[in-house]
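Give me structure tokens for this 722-residue protein.
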Amino acid sequence: MGCQLDEVTTQQFYIAAKSAPPDDRTRVLKYGNMFAVFDRYGDVETTGLGEEGIFYEGTRFLSELALFIGNSRPLLLSSTVKQDNSLFTADLTNVDIVQDENISIPRGSLLITRSKFLYRNSCYEELHVSNFGLQSINVALGLKFDADYSDIFEVRGIKRAARGKRLDPVLQSDTVVLAYRGLDGVTRRTRIRCAPPPKRITASDCRFEVLLAPKQELTFHLQVTCSSHESLDGTISHQQALAHSSAETQEGSHEFCQIRSSNDQFNDWVNRSVADTQMMIVGNPEVDYPYAGVPWFSTVFGRDGIITALECLWVNPAIAKGVLQYLANTQATALVPEADAEPGKILHETRRGEMAALGEVPFGRYYGSIDATPLFVMLAGAYFQRTADRKFLHWIWPHVERALSWIQEYGDKDGDGFIEYSRNSPNGLVQQGWKDSGDSVFHADGRLAEPPIALCEVQSYAYAAKRTAARMAAALRQYHLADALEQQARDLKTRFQQAFWCSDLGTYALALDGRKRACRVRTSNAGHCLYTGIADCGHARAIVDSLLTKDFFTGWGIRTVAVGEARYNPVSYHNGSVWPHDNALLAAGMAQYGFRTAAAKILSALLDVSAWVDLHRLPELFCGLDQRHGEGPTLYPVACAPQAWAAGAVFLLLKACLGMSIDAVKKQVRLEQPVLPDEINDLCVRNLRLASTALDFDVHRQNDKISVQLLTKQHGFEFLVS
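Here you go.
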């Protein structure tokens, strides 16, 4: 994060980058509470950023895994992850293997196809070895391994005063079990099982004998099972697990409507985004809830889940329902200062690791998010509008009422009509908006803002929450409440313009500090005020114009902080970087005020990014350096990839360009003054689900003219194009 050295020491949850990685491209798999980060060989390296490993329930259960042919690392031929993210595959071959100063096995004689996938709490690995040489081969195939049982926060760089105890390994002919008893009293075990049984197995390695005639093949299997319970039983075979994993992945992807275009790069981006979003959901105990990102945030985050659900709402409303159900069921019911919890407040984050269990980090169940609660109300209303699910509206409404009460009672700490935050927990987050690094809220001279802090975008979320809740109240025939909420929203909008608008800057102030002094800094936060509709029309135009200047727009997207501001740093986490989800919200806001060409410009920029990044996967963020001809974007070293709300960005961007709105209550689908970026001439949308029916339509661009063709009968829904 972009901080001075004295500030870094106060940032307990800073993600350390202690040394440069040997290769900046990792391979990621995830299933439920397990995820794995490998290098392109499929190995787990102990060098570089240190994020590689097999993790389960917030702990690294395998910290080293290295494949050897003889005593040498193989040569990498290719490496990828299947488009649906279910399977990692690498093709490897041998280096020249020398014996008695002669080459006994020439380079390229062996082909090893290495594949891996996750299912439940196991990582399944297959090594398929083929001899393409002209002579028989006799060589050892070795795997070196270790388990450090580091909590994810240790991996991120936090030093602990004490750790638990490594237990003695348990060895059998085909299995080794490594174990660690944590200070929380939980024994965590890693079982490594080989098939067929290896020639040798120890607590740190295993070796198979490879004896192959020319053109002969052999297959070896490795299964790494993680457990924080007494038993390691219950795992299933490689083939059964692969079949179940593939079926679950395919089933989930069918929930999305299908999107294709005349641009193959756009199609690759969309397909990877669908797969990444689904990857963050499959296997989770929280049904239809996308975890935030791998490796640092592979757990429930309230804000991230809500924004991902909003991005994906038109293509897959089931995600919104899953997010709302879980967050409603975990809504705070009492004052718990050490967790920053207050009645009605929506969850920020959950963690399952040892440090969370011991309270060394406050995130076991933590509520230190100022924006998740109004965003929750916004999502509830948006889901009802998208689906007309009245049964669910009746179920969720008491939770919406509690959230509204929190906004009024606890969110507004001093009664001035704005929502402010300051942490109650001494170990909690200092900054509690989406830009939550310690140096992200500051004044024009660079001084950090003093709490309690009222962020501009949070006021806009509160405005949208009140208006959305008013519509839900009206649907429930609570008309007096609906009128009262609408009036509260109007009053908030008036106060907001007076307190936050900076006419000389042409934008809203980033925040008000604890003394009600405006943080007069140009940031992307102001663009979120377009998304919610709180901005006056004249102010909206000024904000759009500002965001598209060179101070903000890099060619790859819009920066979080404008060039020239005191803490601007293009290689920082929040003070000048580019975040795809942020850009999607900005584009959606621009479209709300009719600036769809501007939205298309942002879509085009991120489409260019998708052509340069590995697997066409947009990362959590990238650096805010200006686009240079013939060069790709500059990546941020510890960004999560995949990240759920980065994956969902493409869907909200496309919705913005199309001017699309879906109102299942009124039974209307509307495209208002749709545009397509220059890179896309034709767009096809199939199986857009609406209650008991579905729509298919095409959008065609010729020069500057857009035509739309509905391909299916409407079945009670109006399809309107204006």
